[in-house]
Structure formats: C-alpha cells, structure tokens
Amino acid sequence: MISKAQIKFINSLKLKKFRDENALFVAEGYKIVNDLVNSSLKIKTVYYTHEYFNVFNAKEDFELIEVSQSDLDKVSFLKNSSKVIALIEIPSLFVDFELITNEISIALDTIQDPGNLGTIIRTADWFGVKNIYCSKDCVDVFNPKVVQATMGAIGKVNVHYLDLKELFSKLIDNQDFKIHGSFLDGESVYKADLKNKGIILMGNEGNGISEELEKFISKRLFIPKFYTEEIGSESLNVSIATSIILSEFKRRTVI
Predict the structure, then answer these.
(1) Whole-Å CA distances, 113 to 63, 107, 122, 143, 146
(2) Residue 213: DSSP 8-state
C-alpha cells in the first residue's frame, strides 16, 4: 500500500519545481521502467503490481514496493494508469567540449512541445546520438509527457540545459567544426557536404531558430518539398525534420 504521504510526494513530481528540489522524476509503464532499470540511471523506488514481482524481484539496488492497481491509479500521470511506476534520480551532467567537437550532436532552441522533445530524444537514440543541448527555455526533459514520449530512450541520451549562445561562442573558432541549422532558404540536405561531426540546431515549433543563434550557423540546411502542388503543408514538424536531417547525416557518414 502507498501511504498518503507517498501519494502526495509522487504527485508533486509532476511539477518541475519539485522534481528539481528532490532531483527525482517519474517513469511509468513496464517497457520504459525496464529500459531505465537497465540503463545507467539510478533507480530509487519501483512501485509494481503483483504480476511484475518476478520481473523486478531480482533487482537489489533499489527499493521495491508491491502495491495494488488502485494505489497506482492514485499516482499515475497517465489517462490509463500503468502497472509499474518508478522514481528515478535526475543525473548530474557536464559538457565535454572535446567530445562535442568529435561527434554529431543535436541542439534545440526553445522547443516547447513535450511530444516533440520526447520524439527527438528517441530519434537521437536510434541514430546513436548521445548528447542533446537544449536552450534553458526548452520544455523540461523530465516532464512526464516527455519521459513517456521517449519510450525509454531518456536513459541512453544525455540532455543538457545551457546557454546555447555561450556554447556556440566557444565552438566557432574551430574551423573544422560546423553548426548546421534548418532553414527554408538553406541548401538541400541531400546535396550538402555533411561530415561525421558537428551540431544540428533545430528551432522553435513556431518561430524557428532565433536571431541570436542564427549568426553562429556555418551551414544552412533545407529539406526540399517533393509535393509540387501549391496547396499543402508549409513546413515539417520539428521532430520529423530532425529525423530526416539526422538520417541523412548518418547515411552519408556511416553507411
């Protein structure tokens, strides 16, 4: 049974303020929790129904609490509550500048939609990208909706929050390092010269890349529209655009 105090505490973690204060976030669902249990993240507590006893019972490095489904219903952030909920420690990360200059990474400028961020993290994991650099005003990666959208990839990709202007200022002196940005007036991503290192910067869902960051772009990229009729979508969703650009980078530099 989950006590009233535990219920109140878990529910408080829906808000960023309390996630930051306690350095904890919530993950729900067997697949996501199981993936995170087997990741480098530190699990604090797993609440589970009896049917998952054998799955988690072998784990000894975190607290296991068997509860009823009705108890989980009281702390679930989902419309249809799951049978497993975990409290996970928020990791402390640092920016390795040497690593940045020798790999492909993603930077996000004011991404606001939790689903978009979660999908981008999942995409990054699929393509082997280990680091994402978010502006400080991006949606919180430990927002329950973001965590859910990552489908466990949050345990494999490091998401940093920092001043992107300051970060880029430290990188532009490296002549071999490129900061790529997605624009409607850029060079086709299918024709551009792409390397196996650099940053791919993606902008806000409605406003794109901000002016203060645009000046750091060394290569402007564009995803051409193959539908020739005048009536149609004016732009791609940012998570889809990230997937297309990242896929082309990997196709050129890995395959």
Answers:
(1) 32, 15, 14, 10, 8
(2) H
Alpha helices by DSSP H, the chain: 4-12, 16-22, 30-37, 53-56, 69-75, 97-100, 114-126, 144-150, 164-171, 211-214, 238-253
The pLDDT mean for the chain works out to 90
The 10s digit of each residue's pLDDT in 97-138 is 888 888 999 999 999 999 999 999 999 999 999 999 999 999
Question: How would you write 165-179 as a 3-class SS string?
Answer: HHHHHHHCCCCCCCE
Would you put residue 140 in left (φ > 0), alpha (ψ -120 to 50) or beta? beta
Cβ neighbours of 177 (radius 10 Å): 16
Q: What is the residue type of 7?
A: I
Q: Domains plus CATH for the chain?
A: 4-89 (3.30.1330.30), 97-253 (3.40.1280.10)
C-alpha 209: how far from chain center: 18
Task: Give the end-to-end CA distance of the chain in Å, rounded to a whole number.
Answer: 52
Residue whose C-alpha is closest to residue 218's, from 177, 188, 248, 161: 177
